[in-house]
Design a protein that fits this description.
about 500 residues, rod-shaped, 28 strands, six-stranded antiparallel beta barrel, mainly beta
Length: about 500
C-alpha cells in the first residue's frame, strides 16, 4: 500500500522556501571563505593515487562555522615526527549556492580540458564539494582540506537536502602548486616543502680590478721613430730600476700592406709602469728574428719621490659578457677621474688590464671601476612563476627572490625528468617576468622523489608476487599438490 497522495511530504514551493531561508541564515550568520578546487596534474595507475596536483582557481562562498568555541580535533600533539597540528573545523554551505555558483564552472568542458593532465572524452560530473579540495579560512589565515562531505544532514526535511557539511582538517603541504592569484593564499605556504636555493649572476657580470701604487714610475712612452722592416712585434726592453718593479711593455704593429710586407711600431701598451726610477731609463727595441730596425722610443718618468701613481692593474673578477675592451676609471672622493686604464677581453671575459694614465699624487682607498658590459642581464623574478634552464630544460617554480644577493629559491622540480639538476652557467629564464640570469652554483640539491612515479613500488611488488605461478599464496614448502591448468589452486 502506498502513501496517501493527498498529503505532500514537501512540495516544490515549500522546498524552495526552505532553501531560501537557509541561504538567508548563512548570509546573516556565516563568514566568507575561499573554496579552492584541486586539479590533478599527474596520476599513477597502480592504486590510482595522485602524485601531483595544483590549485589555480578559487570561489568565494558564505559558510557557517560550526566550531563556535574554537578549533576541533586533537590540537597540538607531540609525535615521533615532532609537533603536529591536528586542528579541524566543520563548515556548512548552501547546496543551492554550490550547485548554481561553483559546480557549473567546474563542469564546463573548457575548464576540464584545460586543467586535466589526460585529455579524454569522458567528462566527470561534479555536483558536490569533493574530498581533497581546500578551504581557506581567512579568520585564522589557514588552509583546511576537506576530508568528508556530509550531504544528508539535516535528514531530508520536506524530502530534500539543503546544505553540505564540510568536515575539514588542517592542510598538510605535499609539494602542491598554488597559483590562485590571491597573494594572501599563495604566500601561506611560501616557505613550506622542499626548497632549493640557486646563486645566480648576471648574464653580463661586471669585472673587478685592483691597482698598485708606486713612485718613480714611467708616465709615458714616446715613439720618435716607428722603424721599418719588422716581420713581427719586437720586444720592448726597458732598463730595470735599481730598486723597485720592472716595467712590462708590449708593442702594437702597423698592418703590412700589399706594397710593403713588413710592418712598423704603431703603439705601445703598458701592462706595468715600473717603479723606483730616479732618472729616465733607456728603451731598446729588439726584433725577434733580427729583421727590422730604426724604431726609437723615449721614456718619461715621474721624478717627484713623494708622488704616487698606478703602476699596475690586477684582475680580481674576469666578469662575463665583454665582447670588447672596457675602460677602467679610478675616482677620488669627489668622484673625479684621477687615473685610467683599459681592460682587455678575450671576447667574453676580461683577461688583462693595462695602464693608460697612471695619474699623480694618488692615495690608497681610491675607487677603481671597470665599465659594465653592454648587456647587464637584470630583472626580478615573480613569486610562483615558472623558470626554465635554457640548456638543461629543467623547470621549477619560484618561491622567493633576493635581488640584492641574487639568490633564487625554487621548488617543484620537473617530476617528468630523471635528471633535475640545472647546468652550471646555464641561463635561467622567468616565463612571466622574462628575468634572465646565469647560474653560478647551487648548494642545496633537491633530489627527485623516487617514489613519485611508483616505479620502485611496482618493482618490489613484482619480486614478491610471481605472476607465473598458478597459486601465489599456497602453503610454504608444500609441493604435494602440483599446480596445473586443471587444478590452479591446489587442493
Amino acid at each position: 500500500m502506498v502513501v496517501n497522495p493527498f498529503f505532500l511530504h514537501g512540495s516544490t514551493q515549500e522546498q524552495n522556501l526552505m532553501q531560501d531561508l537557509v541561504n538567508e541564515q548563512l548570509r546573516m550568520y556565516g563568514i566568507d571563505v575561499y573554496y579552492i578546487p584541486r586539479e590533478f596534474v599527474r596520476e599513477a595507475t597502480i592504486m590510482r593515487e595522485i602524485t601531483s596536483s595544483q590549485f589555480r582557481s578559487y570561489f568565494i562562498i558564505e559558510a557557517y562555522l560550526n566550531n563556535f568555541d574554537g578549533y576541533g580535533g586533537q590540537g597540538d600533539i607531540m609525535s615521533k615526527f615532532g609537533i603536529q597540528l591536528k586542528d579541524d573545523v566543520t563548515l556548512t554551505i548552501s547546496r543551492e549556492r554550490y550547485e548554481s555558483y561553483v559546480a557549473p564552472f567546474l563542469n564546463s568542458r573548457m575548464l576540464y580540458l584545460m586543467n586535466t593532465a589526460t585529455n579524454t572524452n569522458e567528462l566527470p560530473t561534479i555536483h558536490r564539494p569533493k574530498e581533497g579540495d581546500l578551504i581557506y579560512f581567512p579568520l585564522g589565515r589557514r588552509l583546511f582540506e576537506i576530508k568528508f562531505v556530509e550531504h544528508e544532514k539535516p535528514f531530508y526535511q520536506l524530502g530534500k537536502g539543503y546544505t553540505y557539511d564540510l568536515e575539514c582538517e588542517l592542510f598538510e603541504y605535499e609539494d602542491e602548486v598554488f597559483n590562485t592569484s590571491i597573494d594572501e593564499i599563495d604566500s601561506t605556504l611560501q616557505d613550506k616543502g622542499y626548497i632549493t636555493s640557486l646563486e645566480l649572476i648576471a648574464l653580463s657580470n661586471r669585472a673587478e680590478v685592483s691597482y698598485k701604487l708606486g713612485t718613480g714610475y714611467i708616465e709615458k712612452l714616446l715613439i720618435l721613430n716607428e722603424g721599418k722592416g719588422y716581420n713581427g712585434a719586437p720586444d720592448i726592453v726597458i732598463d730595470p730600476p735599481e730598486v723597485g718593479d720592472d716595467p712590462q711593455v708590449v708593442a702594437l704593429m702597423n698592418q703590412a700592406t700589399v706594397n710593403n710586407s713588413t710592418s712598423s711600431v704603431k703603439d705601445l701598451v703598458i701592462f706595468r709602469s715600473g717603479s723606483g726610477y730616479t732618472e729616465a731609463p733607456s728603451v731598446n727595441v729588439v726584433p725577434p728574428d733580427r729583421e727590422g730596425s730604426g724604431a726609437i722610443i723615449r721614456a718619461g718618468i715621474n721624478t717627484d719621490p713623494l708622488s704616487k701613481g698606478i703602476i699596475e692593474f690586477d684582475v680580481l673578477e674576469t666578469g662575463t659578457g665583454y665582447a670588447e675592451d672596457a675602460k677602467i676609471s679610478v675616482y677620488d672622493g669627489d668622484n673625479n677621474i684621477i687615473a685610467e686604464g683599459t681592460a682587455l677581453t678575450d671576447g667574453t671575459k676580461i683577461v688583462k688590464a693595462v695602464v693608460t694614465n697612471p695619474g699623480k699624487d694618488l692615495f690608497e682607498g681610491a675607487v677603481v671601476v671597470v665599465d659594465a658590459p653592454p648587456d647587464a642581464g637584470d630583472g626580478d623574478f615573480i613569486y610562483n612563476e615558472i623558470v626554465e634552464g635554457k640548456s638543461s630544460g629543467t623547470k621549477a617554480r619560484v618561491r622567493g627572490w633576493d635581488g640584492v644577493n641574487k639568490i633564487l629559491q625554487i621548488t617543484n622540480l620537473d617530476p617528468e625528468k630523471d635528471d633535475v639538476d640545472f647546468a652550471v652557467e646555464e641561463v635561467i629564464v622567468g616565463k612571466t617576468s622574462r628575468a634572465r640570469y646565469s647560474l653560478k652554483r647551487w648548494d642545496t640539491k633537491t633530489p627527485k622523489d623516487k617514489y613519485s612515479g611508483s616505479d620502485d613500488i611496482q618493482e618490489e611488488a613484482n619480486v614478491i608476487v610471481d605472476e607465473t605461478e598458478f597459486n601465489q599464496f599456497g602453503s610454504f614448502n608444500d609441493y604435494s599438490n602440483n599446480f596445473d591448468s586443471s587444478n590452479p589452486f591446489g587442493d
